[in-house]
Amino acid sequence: MIKSYLVERRSWILLFILLQLFVLFVAFLDAAIPLASLLYLVFLSMIIFSVFLIIRYKKETRFYKSLEESDNNLVLTSIAIPESPFEHIIEKSMASQAALLKQSASQNRTALEQEKDELLAWIHEVKTPLTAMHLMIDRVEDETMKTHLTYEWLRIHLLLDQQLHQRRILFIENDLYIEQTGLETILFTEIKTLQSWCIQKRIGFDIQLEVPEVLSDAKWLAFILRQLLTNAVKYSDAADITIRSYRLADQTVLEVADSGRGIDPRDLPRIFDRGFTSTTIHQDNAATGMGLYLAKKAADSLLIQIDIHSKPGAGTTVTLTFPQKNEFVRITSM
User: Where is the Histidine kinase domain (predicted)?
Assistant: First the structure.
């Protein structure tokens, strides 16, 4: 403690000693100044300064010792003194609540998984009588009745298919198989499903496939095209739907164009939003607002850029721009 005290004040001590030596040096040079008297004064000054240091040391070290003892007491208190009962209750309550929240989140996740599995199982179960119903409809001889029944069957089939893919799309990354996929096969399969509806509305298809194959997942690409073709048929009357593929800037582009009612410009920015339906014909109860939303989600997972251009009364054109092969390689190697 004494050493620390002197070290902290060494500059002042050295200044005082140098001043005393300076006075003696001046008296030594100047014969008119009595050296003995100055030596006596310097001696008294040193004694007084030493007493001053001793007094200040006792006062200041007493203060520092009290601070040090307070710090030691705080450390000892934090180490040795146990938590108060109130702090113990709070800590125990927070730990209990955290455990309950974790357990509740786990139970909710399990319940959601179970609900998803049950819904998927239900959809698959419903598909069996739906298939039988389609076979029964084919036997109906009344063409008008057959057409109406087929249309209603198709609506149920598409809604169930949409619901099925809505549940699966959460885990689409686990369900992808990227390969060279033939566009003609997928398009003809989807058009055949919509055949009765297209005949009823007198809608034809003009297919021009300059690029017959694309790199994609066949199942999810079929789902995307199903949503686009369903919308094109739904909002068109007695006209051809043009489907063409071509190369643009080293990428394959697939274009689906109809001459239906079109989309209002204020609706275009929100067309891919979940549950969004037209603001122009808001009373359209047949629209669920999920088709394009799910198509966009699936397209993003397949690295497909989907764009829509439309004008009211002039039809709608949807373009799918497929990625290059090296883009898939870069994604799968990450």
Answer: 121-326
Question: Rounded to 5 degrees, what are φ and ψ at 206?
Answer: -115, 105
List beta partners, residue 243: 207, 256
- pLDDT, one tens digit per residue, over 81-100 is 455 555 666 777 788 788 88
Contact assessment for residue 153 and residue 202, using Cβ atoms and an 8 Å cutoff:
no
Q: Which residue has the higher pLDDT, 23 or 320?
A: 320
Task: Copy the structure tokens of residue 112.
Answer: 């959601």
Angstrom distance (rounded) from CA 190 to CA 230: 9
Tokens 């251009």, residue located = 309
Which residues 6+ apart lie within 8 Å of 175 measured at CB? 168, 217, 219, 220
Question: Looking at the domain 182-332, which fold is it?
Answer: Heat Shock Protein 90 (3.30.565)
Contact 302, 216 (CB under 8 A): yes
Find all residues with CB under 8 Å of 34, minimum gap 6, and list them: 27
Q: How many angstroms separate the most distant Cα atoms in the chain? A: 147
Q: Is the pLDDT of residue 48 over 50?
A: yes
Residue 9 DSSP SS3: coil
Report phi then psi at 104, rounded to 5: -65, -40
Residue 224 token pair:
């995307």
Q: How distant, in Å, are the alpha carbons of 68, 143, 224, 299 from that of 252?
A: 78, 41, 16, 14
The percentage of the chain sitting over the pLDDT mark of 90, rounded to a whole number, equals 22
% of the chain surpassing 70 pLDDT: 84
Residue 295's H or E segment, with its range, is helix 291-301
Instruction: Please give the order of strands across the beta sheet that includes 204-209.
Output: 204-209, 240-248, 251-258, 315-321, 305-311
Structure tokens at 188: 């003809």
Could you read off the pLDDT of 138-195 as tens digits, one per residue?
888 887 888 788 888 888 888 888 888 887 888 788 888 888 999 999 999 999 988 8
For residue 104, the tally of other CB atoms under 10 A from its CB is: 10
For tokens 């060494």, what's the residue? Answer: 10
Partnered with residue 315 across adjacent β-strands are 311
Parse the chain into domains and list their residue ranges: 2-80, 182-332
